[in-house]
Write a structure and sequence with these properties.
Layout lengths: L3 H6 L18 H14 L7 E7 L5 E7 L2 E3 L2 E7 L3 H8 L2 E8 L4 E11 L2 H8 L4 H9 L9 H15 L10 E15 L7 E7 L5 E6 L2
Antiparallel strand pairs: 1-2, 1-5, 3-4, 4-7, 5-6, 6-7, 7-8, 8-9
Helix pairs in contact: 5-6
Length: about 220
């Protein structure tokens, strides 16, 4: 166990590179995809992992890690159970935030925006691209609900596999995609002495983007 002094002393002075306004693409999605490709090339484990933050009806923020599966001009898409905690929270408040952290590159990306469900067709296409065991798991798990133990989950998985088999598994009605349409995208590059580079894109009424540097 770390002592309070040891915990307080944990720090890293970032020194790999900087980030200038001139380095950025005019379109933030293009810039994001370039950074994502670098993270993939660096062999970072699950470079598409992102923290999703939502807010419940009582105003309590919640966060969890999900996986980015589609990134295009429309936004960033992940797939999940619509009836789980994040689905309920997004139904009540579709405003959300995403954070990517790529420590090996001393980088993070912070994104805010509005979330909406993908079409049933897009959800089905992705669902059937998943391994059969993952498709069965979507039927077996009542996400975020209390369970008696691991044995209950395994029994539900076995029952779902017996019912649906392992080929032509239908898309569950409670499962699909969410797409976050970005309002802001901030690119953060670690620098020495905590003078980090932070450059933020903000969507404008005409659909363009304003780029500003923020103090660290």
């Amino acid at each position: 166990m770390l002592s309070p002094a040891e915990l307080a002393a944990l720090r890293q002075d970032y020194a790999q590179r900087g980030l200038r306004r001139a380095d950025l693409a005019s379109d933030p999605v293009a810039q994001f995809n370039a950074w994502l490709a670098e993270a993939q090339a660096q062999q970072i484990i699950e470079p598409n992992a992102m923290t999703l933050a939502t807010v419940d009806a009582a105003g309590q923020p919640w966060s969890r890690t999900v996986l980015l599966k589609i990134c295009d001009a429309r936004g960033l898409t992940f797939f999940t159970n619509y009836e789980g905690a994040k689905g309920r929270q997004l139904a009540g408040n579709p405003q959300a935030a995403l954070t990517f952290w790529w420590g090996a590159l001393e980088r993070q990306v912070n994104i805010t925006g509005t979330v909406e469900k993908t079409s049933a067709g897009e959800s089905e296409t992705y669902f059937h691209s998943r391994p059969a065991s993952s498709q069965i798991g979507a039927w077996a798990s009542a996400q975020s609900e209390v369970v008696a133990g691991r044995a209950q989950l395994e029994a539900q998985f076995s029952a779902a596999r017996e019912k649906h088999g392992e080929t032509e598994i239908p898309l569950p009605p409670h499962w699909g995609g969410y797409r976050l349409a970005p309002q802001t995208i901030e690119f953060w590059q670690g620098r020495r002495s905590r003078l980090h580079d932070r450059l933020r894109y903000t969507r404008q009424p005409d659909g363009g983007w304003k780029i500003e540097r923020l103090a660290p």
